[in-house]
Amino acid sequence: MKAIHFGAGNIGRGFIGKVLADAQVNVTFADVNEPLIDQLSHAQSYKVKVVGNDCHLDTVSHITAVNAAGPDVIEQIAHTDLITTAVGPAVLDKIAKTIADGLTKRFESGNLNPLNIIACENMVRGTSHLKEEVYRYLSLSHQAMAEAYVGFVDSAVDRIVPPAEAANDDPLEVTVESFSEWIVDQQQFKGEIPAIAGMETTNDLMAFVERKLFTLNTGHIIAAYLGALQGYETIRDAIEDPDIRTQVSNAMRESGEVLIRRYGFDRAQHDAYIEKILSRFANPFLRDEIDRVGRQPIRKLGPNDRLIKPLLGTLEYNTPNQTLITGIAAALLYINNSDPQAVALQTSLKEKGVRQTLAQYTGLDADGDVARRIEQCYQALS
């Protein structure tokens, strides 16, 4: 089986690329980083340090690489069995035309074998979004062929892959946590679902998308923003602060109450899931920097993202949300002069104030009770 994976960065190599290669899939990485592509093409393997209760070093093979902006990737798409991505939500739109060009070549060459595309991003229904963008570049006849032969499969992904200094001066080596979760919507595949160890299928993807978003992502970002206020540098430093750990745990339980009511998750099992995530944040082998997690606060304050969406759920079910309110207020206080979104957020706060800024970026009613509570918490924290 052959796969093209867009994104040869740490997440691409350390998570999905590794899962595919470990399943004996022949993986071609596609990226625009020419030196990285040259290194992968030459070595055709790389090391992954897996850290959990202990550390071990794996070798990933069965791989090569091409330039995502060159003609070779179009040819690859015409003949591959699977396309995956780990490029970040903002880059999905940029690779859509490349994928469309590859599909056009595929159809015009007569290849009607099933092809499945899976965007593995921190984004709700990211593949469905990618499909819309790809179709913008396909003719109506090729859109019809894509409907028949191409599966756009949504997924939920979870693995912490922080930037790390490679050991032994190896620029390809990447460090990842031992935990990983890749869940895909089995109803969206075309042809047979590939048997890939580490890829789980479900008929109820949104339950797992929101479980991850409301728990891992919510807890991660609140640990980052509360940690930043205390001057900590890493998530582990922050979560080892008893007060922050308590607040992060409480926030995940507030968002978890929404999940339990919405999807019927078992309460004891979800509590265990929360404790597992707290232990992941405290992993002594991972240097997960607060500025990596906290960057792009405007995106993370979006109405469908990790802070506001669970808050809206608590309003829907009339359940407690004070710690989520605290996390949102802490997000408004995030300072990072090297992050354009953080700078823009602070500019808006100075020019428009808290409640108008919330209305602009979160969709909350500036005159509503929730915006007033966030403003009060913001003032208390500052």
Would you write up a description of this structure?
There is one protein chain. By secondary structure, the protein is an alpha/beta fold. It folds into two domains: 2-202, Rossmann fold, CATH 3.40.50.720; 206-381, N-(1-d-carboxylethyl)-l-norvaline Dehydrogenase, domain 2. The protein has helices at 10-22, 34-43, 71-79, 89-108, 126-135, 140-149, 205-229, 235-239, 242-263, 267-281, 290-294, 297-300, 308-317, 322-332, 340-352, 354-362, 369-381; strands at 2-6, 26-31, 46-51, 55-60, 63-67, 82-85, 115-119, 150-153, 155-158, 174-177, 181-185, 200-202. The strands form three sheets. The protein has a six-stranded parallel beta sheet with strand order 5-2-1-6-7-8, with helices on both faces. The chain has a three-stranded mixed beta sheet with strand order 4-3-10. Helix 4 (89-108) links the parallel strand 6 (82-85) and strand 7. Helix 14 (322-332) crosses helix 17. The radius of gyration is 21 Å and the shape is globular. The mean pLDDT is 96.
